[in-house]
Amino acid sequence: MKSFFKRFTFTWNAKLRTKLLSSFILICIIFSIGSVVSFTSMRNTNQSYDYLINNVMEIRSVSSSIESNISQQTSHFRGYFLNGDIEDLDRVTELSQIGSELINNGLELSTVEEVTDSLTILQNLNNSYSNQVEDITTNGMGSSDTSNRDLVLLENRMINESQQLNDLLNEIVAEHSEQTTAESATAMILILIISAVALVIAIVGGFIISTMISKPIVKLAQISERLADGDLTVDSLTVKSRDEIYVLNESFRNMTNNFRKMVAQIASNTDQVAASSEQLSSSADETTKATTTITGSIQSVATGAETQVQSTGAAKEVVKDIAVGMKQITESVELVSSFANDAGDKSNNGKVVIEKAMKQMDKINSKTAEISDVVQQLGDKSKEIGSIISLITDVAEQTNLLALNAAIEAARAGEHGRGFAVVADEVRKLAEQSNKSAEEIRHLIHYIQEDIDRSVTMMGEGRESVEGGLTLVNDAGNEFETISLSVNDLTTQIAQILRAVKENTEGTNKMQTFIEEAAKIAEESASYSQNVAASTEEQMASMEEISASAETLSSMAEELLNEVRKFKV
To answer: Where are the transmembrane segments (predicted)?
Structure first.
């Protein structure tokens, strides 16, 4: 169990490509097992048919030839007995030798004990028949009736034994045919079971893998939408696996945390800017009031006024720098939003690609089912071919028997030639039946060939579907790579925003220093209140400009705060 959980954990933490390839390899292994079983079954069936054709059927042919040989021996001996023609006697001797050779050939082919025993009996009977014929020939045609009766008995025994041999061979053929049919049916059931198991594994594996991929991607898309709407309080997603989705989730987590810190820092700095602008406005008001009471020395007031103008000019530059920094912050935030939207779009594209891959898997399953049906039809057609072959075989046997009878009738000739016409008519009918069976075989073979062509075509389509699935998976990987690049760009923009905020802070500090210098000069001007009458208006104008700048800075800080408040931190 521990090793199983280790393997399962490894598969769970594997890359997406490894998970998909593992599922496809598992299905291919199962189908390979089915192919091996199918090949083994077909090989066993072929061996059985080869045995029937090359051995049993050959022995049946030998048996039929032996039976024909016996009939010819009987016919020629009777011709010799009736006519005394020496050619008939020579033909009997020749046929006896041929019969002995046929029986020896049958013994060499036989692998069944009963068949061997029957052939041995025929061999003994044939030898006895030859000896009996030789004895009758030696003693002359006028030998005893006992010898003639014995010869007739031997003929009958040989004919009966050959018929029994044919019956035995028919039983062997039927037994092997039934065995072959049973083996084919068993193999077909096993193939169907393996195909069903492969189908179930493919469906379950496809569902599990698709769920593992699509579920976290959908959740990441939802998180991206909330981030795009400015909700930075969204909780991060927990991913147990350690694949590409885990890496993408960690990138989203880091991006969210950095963005949250950035917005909080911007809000804090904006509050400080607003407070500084209020202080600046208050100081400007106090300076204006103090200017109305100045009566000091004109020279001292003029010197202080010049210094104060320079300080206020520097304050304007600092305020301008702050405005530029705020503009950069706004542009950077807009870029951050754009990149976040781009990342969401790429995630959606990845989801679409994964869905296409699922459809390709379904297509593979459909083609596999069709291939199973075609193979089943091919088996059915093979069974029909077996039955028709049996029918043709039976017809051939009957045709051979009738041909032998026709030969016997022809030998007798004379007025009995009418019997030959009857036999010939039977031969014609059996020949027509053989032609009909052969035609049916041709049609069935044609159908089987069409089914085989369909199987080849469907296997090609299944292969194309697998290749399409792999291509789509590669596309998904490219899309996720693009998302990673977008996240990197987003990080760069955040760094620019942070630098702009730092510059804003430095400008604020400088502005505070310059304002303090202006306050000191205003205090010095108060001591020379009697000499500042001429410069009072200029000092008032300067204070109004400072006050307006402070109000502008306060307004900009308020607008920036409003923009920052749109984000939920």
So the answer is: 187-209
Provide the residue ranges of all domains of the chain, joining segments of one domain with +: 11-221, 229-569
What tokens does 363 get? 């297509």
Extract the tokens encoding 359. Answer: 């459809």
Q: 71, 407 in Cβ contact below 8 A?
A: yes
Per the CB < 8 A criterion, the answer to whether 89 and 137 are in contact is yes
Residue 113: the pLDDT is: 82
User: What is the tens place of the pLDDT at every residue in 226-249?
Assistant: 767 776 666 666 766 666 777 777
The segments of the chain whose pLDDT lies below 50 read 1-10, 142-144, 295, 301, 305, 319, 518-519, 522, 526, 529
Between the two ends of the chain, the Cα-to-Cα distance in Å is: 46
The length of the chain in residues reads 569
Check: CB of residue 360 under 8 Å from CB of residue 474: no
pLDDT value of residue 221 = 76
Cα gap 132→433, rounded to integer Å: 42
Give pLDDT tens digits for 523-544: 565 455 455 555 556 666 666 6
Query: What is the DSSP code string of 266-293?
Result: HHHHHHHHHHHHHHHHHHHHHHHHHHHT
HEC string for 54-73? HHHHHHHHHHHHHHHHHHHH
Percentages helix, strand, coil for the chain (3-state, rounded to 5) are 90, 0, 5
217-244: b or e for each residue (b if 16 or more CB lie within 10 Å)?
beebbebbeebeeeebebeebebebebb
Residue 23 · residue 212 · CB < 8 Å: no
Contact 518, 312 (CB under 8 A): yes
Identify whether the C-beta of residue 547 lies closer than 8 Å to the C-beta of residue 285.
Answer: yes
- 104, 129, 462, 543 from 281: Cα distances, Å: 133, 147, 79, 9
The tokens describing 518, both together, are 């202006």
Measured in degrees and rounded to the nearest 5, phi and psi for residue 340 equal -65, -45
- Rounded distance between C-alpha atoms, residue 177 and residue 387, angstroms: 9
Question: CA angle 85-86-87, nearest 5°?
Answer: 90
Fold of 229-569: Helix Hairpins (1.10.287)
Structure tokens at 96: 């006896």
> For 398, left (φ over 0), alpha (ψ -120 to 50), or beta?
alpha
Residue 5: its pLDDT value, please?
39
- How does 408-442 read in b/e, with b if 16+ C-beta sit within 10 Å? bbebeeeeeeeebeebeebbeebeebbeebeebbe
Distances (CA, A) of 120 to 55, 62, 76, 101, 378: 17, 14, 24, 12, 43
SS3 of 235, please?
coil
Domain 11-221 fold is Four Helix Bundle (Hemerythrin (Met), subunit A) (1.20.120)
Q: What is the CA radius of gyration of the chain?
A: 55
